[in-house]
Design goal:
This protein is about 40% helix and about 15% strand. By secondary structure, it is of the alpha/beta class. The strands form two sheets. Strands 1, 2, 5, 6, 7, 8, 9 and 10 form an eight-stranded mixed β-sheet that branches. Strands 3-4 form a two-stranded antiparallel sheet. It is globular and about 55 Å long.
């Protein structure tokens, strides 16, 4: 199969890449599956880690190239830590207190985004929607044009880790706070494939009570799953898959090899489901 699906066809594929921190590395194998099937999405919507992967793929970077670029960065721990140290947040000292700052998401993106990613969202090869959250506006914000890196930075601005991103006087944070799986923001034509990598809290034998950090991330996961479940009452994607990511934590980026290995069966399942649904559409 090597047919490219184009806009206007009943076989258009609308690809939705959810947010979930390091769990979103499984999107790499999904993008490889598309390449191996010779398919091209008609539209991509992404939140947080899904926005990073979506930005690269929509710009023409293949799944294999995204894998090579990402594994090279994350497996070179010495160079990665040196870069992180160079952009580390500053500690602000007050009267008897010390306040740790937050990372600048745009600076981090300069480290992780492939250099060939489009500078403008509207110039991507595949139409792209990036989701962030308007902090003071209490709602999600969509980006379909404008500066790519600023929009992606806003989408990944996880509270407590990254400082908010300001675009057009709006204070923006991680898209997962409002819409971790934006299948409601792709055209309702053809086939919608949504990949939910958010996961949820998992009990650990050596941790009877979760740590404060685990509670913060876990609460966000629960909220995101609640929002997704509510949206599914109104519209259900033709394919909705949840890769096996629960054993990995939000910040387990250095476990990229384990994450990608665990996702191999998911890749096969995705390819099988795509082939089945396309065969039924013939």
């Amino acid at each position: 199969m090597n047919t490219v699906r184009r806009s206007g066809s009943d076989k258009d594929i609308q690809l939705v890449l959810g947010g979930g921190g390091a769990r979103g590395l499984t999107h790499i194998v999904a993008l490889e599956a598309f390449d191996e099937l010779g398919l091209r999405p008609a539209h991509i919507a992404g939140t947080s880690m899904g926005a990073i992967m979506g930005a690269a793929y929509a710009s023409g970077v293949s799944g294999a190239e995204i894998r090579e670029h990402t594994t090279r960065i994350l497996n070179n721990k010495g160079a990665l830590l040196a870069k992180i140290w160079g952009i580390r947040p500053k500690v602000t000292l007050g009267w008897g207190t010390a306040k740790l700052g937050q990372f600048d998401a745009e600076q981090v993106l300069e480290t992780v985004l492939p250099p060939t990613v489009s500078s403008l969202i509207e110039n991507t090869e595949i139409p792209l929607t990036i989701v962030a959250t308007d902090y003071f506006g209490w709602h999600e914000t969509l980006f379909r044009n404008g500066d790519m890196r600023s929009a992606v930075a806003a989408s990944i601005a996880l509270p407590a880790i990254f400082k908010p991103v300001v675009i057009d006087s709006r204070v923006l944070i991680d898209g997962g706070a409002s819409n971790a799986l934006p299948f409601d923001h792709v055209p309702k034509t053809g086939i919608t494939i949504a990949l939910d990598v958010m996961g949820g809290p998992v009990e650990e034998e050596d941790e009877p009570l979760p740590s404060p950090t685990s509670v913060v991330f876990g609460a966000m996961q629960i909220l995101s799953q609640t929002i997704t479940a509510k949206k599914l009452e109104d519209f259900s994607p033709e394919i909705l898959l949840r890769p096996p990511t629960d054993n990995f934590k939000v910040l387990d980026f250095l476990k990229i090899d384990e994450i990608l290995t665990a996702a191999i069966p998911f890749k096969d399942e995705l390819k099988r489901k795509i082939e089945e649904i396309l065969a039924r559409a013939d």
